[in-house]
Each structure stands twice: as structure tokens, then as C-alpha cells.
Write a structure and sequence with these properties.
There is one protein chain. With 227 residues, this protein is an all-alpha fold. 65% of the residues lie in helices and 0% in strands. α11 packs antiparallel against α12 and α11 runs parallel beside α13. The chain is globular.
Length: 227
């Protein structure tokens, strides 16, 4: 197995060999110039990563956190994307110590493209497996005032359907309902809309009883005829 530094270096070289400056510029513009890009669309990035795994293997269990941390430190956004892909592949096997890493990823280079998969795939999986972590993490995040931590807390149950802790979801939304942040208002609407697929009546009652931002309300009721 390669050392962590060599593993990251060779992956970076593999990606760099397929750089597309024009595509990189378009991707950078789409992401509001928040990050640099190599110019790899998701299908190409995933194909290159699969090829890389064939040659060098995926990171060893004891190496995964260091590889993810190293990739997160690189400037091009594709490396944060591939780091999340690595974690998602193994999320069901990860022990609860990874929650600290997840929290670091939420607050480092945050934007919707990393926050949403962290919330719905990584944190979502973890809180089903380790519900005792809710008190120490999502509870802290929703009270933090940090937009991205709050968005994560609102969205981590996005795929839970009938397993959704509804009082918890509604309380988190109440906590943030007066926020003027677009990404919070959007998250509120998205979370409600997804839960409406399980219990539309509950969501409709909640929306009718609360003073939500117009954006949150529209997103929550999208696809439902308003009464």
C-alpha cells in the first residue's frame, strides 16, 4: 500500500492528466467562484477513481481518515468530491469516531455540493446507527448559529421516510424558521417536502401553523395543491 502522501499525490496526478481548463472555468462559474476545479464532471471523475482503485487499491481502513483529510486540503473541488465518495462507499462500516471528521468537513470549505451529501448520506447513516450521537452533534449544530451546521441538522433525516423523528425535525425547523439565509430557508422547504411524501397531512398542518419564509413554504408545498 502506498503511503498516504504518495497515494494522494498519485491520485492528484491522475486527475491532472485529464484536466479540462474550459470545463474547469464553467464549473468554477457555476459554483460562484467559490473553488478551483480541474474540469472533471462527475462521471469522468468516478471513472478515473475506479481505474485508480484498480491500480492502487482504495485507502486502507487505518489510512482513510488521513487520505480524506489530505484530499480536503487540496484546492480543486474534485478532491473534496472524491473524498466524500470514499466515505460513502464505507459509511456503514465506519465506527462512531468518524463523527468528528464529518463535523470538520462540514465546517471546512462548506458549500451546498458537499454539505448535502454529508448531511443526507454520511450523517444520516450515522444517526440511524448511532442515535446516541444526536444529543452531542445535531443538537449542538442546530443551536450553533452556523448556517452549514444548521442545514446539516435539518437535512440529515432527508431519506428517513417513516423512520423520521418528526418532533425533532419540526423543532429544528422552528429553531431556524426566522433565518434570512437562503440555504436555511431552502433546506427547511426541502426537508418538509421530502417528509410530505410519507405524511403530507402532517406537513400541511405544520406549514399552516407556522410562519415560514415564503421560499420555505413554497418548497414544502411543491407538488401539493394548497387548500
Amino acid at each position: 500500500m502506498l503511503s498516504t502522501a504518495d497515494y494522494i499525490r498519485r491520485l492528484a496526478e491522475t486527475f491532472a492528466a485529464h484536466a479540462d481548463p474550459d470545463q474547469a472555468a464553467a464549473m468554477r462559474a457555476y459554483m460562484k467562484n467559490q473553488f478551483d476545479f480541474i474540469g472533471l464532471k462527475a462521471p469522468e471523475r468516478k471513472a478515473l477513481t475506479k481505474q485508480f482503485y484498480t491500480e492502487y487499491g482504495s485507502p486502507a481502513d487505518g489510512q482513510l481518515q488521513d487520505v480524506v483529510t489530505g484530499l480536503w486540503a487540496l484546492p480543486e473541488r474534485e478532491f473534496q468530491n472524491v473524498a466524500l465518495d470514499m466515505l460513502e462507499r464505507r459509511v456503514k462500516k465506519l465506527d462512531k469516531s468518524y463523527i468528528g471528521l464529518f463535523e470538520t468537513l462540514i465546517t471546512t470549505k462548506p458549500w451546498w455540493d458537499t454539505i448535502d451529501p454529508i448531511a443526507s448520506k454520511l450523517i444520516g447513516s450515522f444517526m440511524l446507527k448511532y442515535p446516541e450521537l444526536i444529543e452531542d452533534y445535531p443538537e449542538k449544530w442546530i443551536a450553533s448559529g452556523d448556517m452549514w451546521l444548521q442545514r446539516t441538522a435539518i437535512l440529515f433525516q432527508l431519506k428517513y421516510k417513516a423512520k423520521t423523528n418528526v418532533p425533532l425535525l419540526f423543532r429544528y425547523i422552528d429553531n431556524c424558521s426566522e433565518s434570512r439565509e437562503f440555504f436555511i430557508q431552502k433546506a427547511i422547504g426541502w426537508a418538509l417536502r421530502e417528509y410530505a411524501k410519507t405524511d403530507a397531512a402532517a406537513v400541511r398542518r405544520f406549514v399552516q401553523e407556522r410562519r415560514l419564509a415564503p421560499l420555505s413554504r413554497r418548497e414544502a408545498l411543491k407538488g401539493m395543491a394548497e387548500e
